[in-house]
Amino acid sequence: MNQTAWSASVSARTLVHLLLLWPAALWLAWLALSQVSFFYPQDYRWLNIPATIEQYVPQNRQGKQNFIQTNAAEHARLFSDITTAINHNGEGLSDLHYVNPQGVDLGVFLTPDEVTHLTDVSVVVDRGQDIGLCAFIAWLAFVAFSIWRCIPLPRIQALGIGTAITLGFAGCGVALIGPMHVFDAFHRTVFPANHPWFFYYQDSLMTTFMQAPNLFGLITAWWILATCLILFALWGGARLLVALTLKLRT
Q1: 119-159, pLDDT tens digit by residue?
Q2: CB count, 10 Å around CB of 135?
Q3: With 80 as the cut, is the pLDDT of residue 39 above it?
Q4: What is the pTM of this model?
Q5: What distance lies between CA 201 and its chain's CA centroid?
């Protein structure tokens, strides 16, 4: 095989790995971050969400001004419960209550429209998890094929370049279009047209205690960081396994 054909083969294999690894790593990163509530307590401090709560909860138009009696621990619990619910088809969302530090029940946390929206989110998450799982299985099969046929995996530098190009294009696209326009377009495209997804702070404890959409920006940053770490770990582990297998066969 001449140099040009070899380079083309390596590029093709690298592309296949990236196409399978990215959704797989995104899925695994989502699962991992869900276990730590996407670092909500840290995000909570960085965004100064208590100040947002103090400003907007007294203006709540849904009769939930008593949410001001809750504390940071309760906010973290609520976020964790919502995270769990959207990872399990929205189960328990309508039954979510908030309590004060003494454990007194202060009321139902989510409005019916918020439950509808978060249930829609759970549908998207479920589909994404199916895609990630399928991609992960396909990637494992591709690695197994490489071992069987004694085909070494491309160098990790190729992964780095491919990842940098992917993130670069994505970042430039978001910057050119505008983060808020991307956020709105995503919601209008993914969720049913007749389902609510935009909530004013004065009407939504959910939006207030998440300081939406600012929190989503931090969650996205955590998600991308975790995805890259997992992606490189998977690639490095697979490349080492293939190399050891080839060495044992020679």
Answers
A1: 999 999 999 999 999 999 999 998 888 888 777 777 777 67
A2: 19
A3: yes
A4: 0.86
A5: 23
Token pair of 170 as six digits: 């994505």
Do β-strands 105-108 and 97-99 pair in parallel, antiparallel, or remain unpaired? antiparallel
- Coil, strand or helix: which one is 63? coil
Bridge partners (DSSP) listed for residue 210 = none
CA distance linking residue 14 with residue 18, whole number of Å: 6
Rg (CA), the chain: 22
Residue 207 CA neighbour count, 13 Å, CB half? 18
For 88-98, b/e burial (b = at least 16 CB within 10 A) is eebeebbebeb
| Distance, CA of 192 to CA of 188 (rounded, Å) | 8
Helices 214-249 and 156-177: angle between axes, nearest 10 degrees: 160
3-state SS, residue 10? helix
Tell me the pLDDT tens digit for each residue of 178-208.
777 777 777 778 878 888 888 999 999 999 9
Token digits for 122? Answer: 């759970």
Q: pLDDT band at 241, cuts 50/70/90?
A: confident
Write out the E strands in 41-104: 97-99
Q: Of 208, 205, 212, nearest to 180 (Cα)? A: 212
Per the prediction, the chain carries an average pLDDT of: 88
Whether the CB-CB separation of 125 and 218 falls below 8 Å is answered with no
